[in-house]
């Protein structure tokens, strides 16, 4: 027991140092740099983001010949559209971080943590744009779909396979194992509290349901995500709007509390500014994943006409996750008055909702956490599989990883929430550092792509990209060639 406590204390000490002095500084610096270097791409191209999400041309001035070419552009791959790729990444983003993570940030850092979550999301969206665009540029062609991510742009963009392998190992540990424990833990907590069923039985049922999906491959995963994610997100937002309507007179006081707490102007939490910033950035990253290197794995699978389009879509994902869904949870908790009740995690979110709408709120949050956590478990598995394939092409290694995923999901039913968070923070912080170094070094290529995209937009064209556009790195790009019909594939 003493050894276990010593080990956990060591992990917590490493987390404090890593997040206080290294990760937060690099995340903030990169987010600000990418925002200014791209001239605020996440703000000025919001219209384009909406167009991309429905797979519509940015401009409609496309001639009949071009439309016929697009119709002929049938690849041997099973095409996964921009929205499906967006849904897979949003499945990972929209998870327990939005419900339990926000609650934990408020529990530890006070209401001010919410403000710093917002700040991180607004600037971090530029980081998400850069990493997702790189994932599209360096994506590879697989049997059933495109694939790629940080490990691939590290190998083919930076020509450092060792760095790609290091990242692949870290993301597999983070998402394929540690993160799965958090998702499973939160889901089992919610279901056990609502039903009274033993957590072990809930964990067993969840493990079986997970294995059924992940043995079906990325096509089944993307279809599952595109069906579940919009349903669960819209339902949660609508319920949160009901809560805001019920408490409309308290909204100004709530915003005042957030701002005062963020800058230490509230006497009750005046000494928690540093903690609020740390929790806001840390839980914000866990939720929206900007700069972490996870979402690019999903961004790479999309079939699109220009890498920048998927980059824009991933920026939109950060806004949807943090500015919208995380804010919903924060508002529900703060308006309930229970944020300083001593409750933590999903239990705090649940009882805050019950405070507003009665027992029906508890039932809804139980259903929501099931959908949020389950879809995240599936998306996390995909991130792990993509990087296992980078390290080894063996089919047996994928099957072994699927079994490991089942074991870690089951493990989530047995450990405590804070233990799970500690391991996630350590693994997530380490992989984030590796990814940030890579995207800083590769970012000039992203800005070239953005300039190419904007030049085509200014000519009222729907932006298209071929690898011959960047002849200096053409040999490193596997996809994006132009076929005999003049269509990018």
What value does the Rg take, in angstroms?
22 Å
* Basic shape: globular
Strand content: under 5%
Rounded to the nearest angstrom, the distance between the terminal CA atoms is: 57 Å
Order of helices and strands: HHHHHHHEEHHHHHHHHHHHH
Tally of helical runs: 19
Structural category is mainly alpha
Strand order of the largest sheet: 1-2
Q: Low-confidence parts lasting 5 or more residues at pLDDT below 50?
A: 60-64, 66-78, 483-487
Q: Major sheet, described briefly?
A: 2 strands, antiparallel
- Helical content stands at over 70%
How many DSSP E strands? 2
* Average of pLDDT: 77
Oligomer: single chain
At a glance:
The chain is built from 19 helices and two strands.
């Amino acid at each position: 027991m003493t050894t276990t406590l010593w080990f956990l204390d060591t992990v917590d000490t490493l987390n404090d140092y890593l997040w206080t002095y290294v990760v937060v500084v690099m995340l903030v610096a990169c987010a600000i740099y990418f925002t200014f270097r791209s001239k605020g791409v996440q703000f000025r191209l919001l219209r384009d983001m909406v167009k991309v999400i429905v797979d519509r041309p940015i401009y409609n001035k496309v001639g009949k010949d071009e439309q016929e070419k697009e119709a002929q552009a049938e690849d041997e791959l099973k095409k996964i559209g921009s929205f499906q790729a967006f849904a897979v990444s949003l499945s990972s983003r929209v998870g327990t971080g939005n419900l339990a993570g926000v609650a934990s940030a408020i529990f530890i850092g006070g209401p001010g943590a919410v403000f710093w979550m917002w700040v991180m999301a607004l600037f971090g969206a530029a980081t998400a744009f850069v990493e997702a665009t790189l994932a599209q540029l360096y994506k590879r062609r697989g049997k059933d779909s495109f694939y790629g991510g940080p490990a691939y742009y590290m190998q083919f963009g930076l020509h450092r396979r060792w760095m790609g392998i290091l990242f692949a190992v870290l993301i597999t540990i983070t998402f394929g194992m540690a993160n799965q424990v958090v998702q499973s833990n939160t889901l089992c907590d919610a279901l056990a509290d609502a039903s009274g069923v033993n957590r072990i039985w809930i964990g067993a049922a969840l493990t079986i349901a997970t294995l059924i999906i992940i043995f079906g491959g990325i096509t089944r995963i993307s279809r599952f995500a595109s069906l579940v994610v919009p349903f669960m997100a819209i339902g949660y937002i609508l319920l949160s709007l009901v809560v805001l309507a019920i408490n409309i007179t308290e909204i100004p006081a709530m915003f005042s509390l957030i701002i005062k707490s963020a800058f230490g102007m509230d006497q009750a939490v005046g000494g928690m500014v540093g903690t609020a910033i740390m929790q806001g950035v840390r839980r914000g990253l866990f939720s929206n994943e900007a700069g972490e290197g996870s979402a690019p794995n999903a961004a790479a699978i999309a079939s699109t006409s220009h890498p920048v389009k998927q980059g824009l879509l991933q920026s939109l994902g950060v806004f949807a996750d943090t500015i919208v869904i995380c804010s919903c949870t924060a508002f529900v908790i703060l308006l309930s008055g229970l944020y300083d009740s001593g409750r933590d995690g999903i239990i705090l979110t649940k009882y805050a909702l019950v405070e507003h709408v009665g027992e029906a709120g508890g039932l809804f949050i139980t259903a929501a956490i099931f959908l949020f956590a389950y879809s995240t478990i599936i998306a996390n598995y995909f991130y792990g599989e993509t990087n296992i394939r980078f390290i080894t092409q063996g089919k047996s290694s994928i099957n072994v990883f699927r079994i490991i995923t089942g074991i870690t999901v089951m493990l989530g039913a047995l450990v405590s929430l804070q233990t799970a968070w500690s391991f996630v923070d350590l693994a997530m912080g380490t992989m984030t550092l590796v990814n940030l170094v890579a995207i800083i070094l590769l970012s000039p290529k992203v800005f070239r792509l953005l300039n190419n995209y904007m030049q085509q937009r200014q000519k009222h064209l729907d932006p298209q990209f071929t690898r011959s556009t960047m002849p200096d790195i053409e040999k490193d790009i596997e996809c994006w060639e132009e076929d005999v019909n003049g269509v990018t594939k």
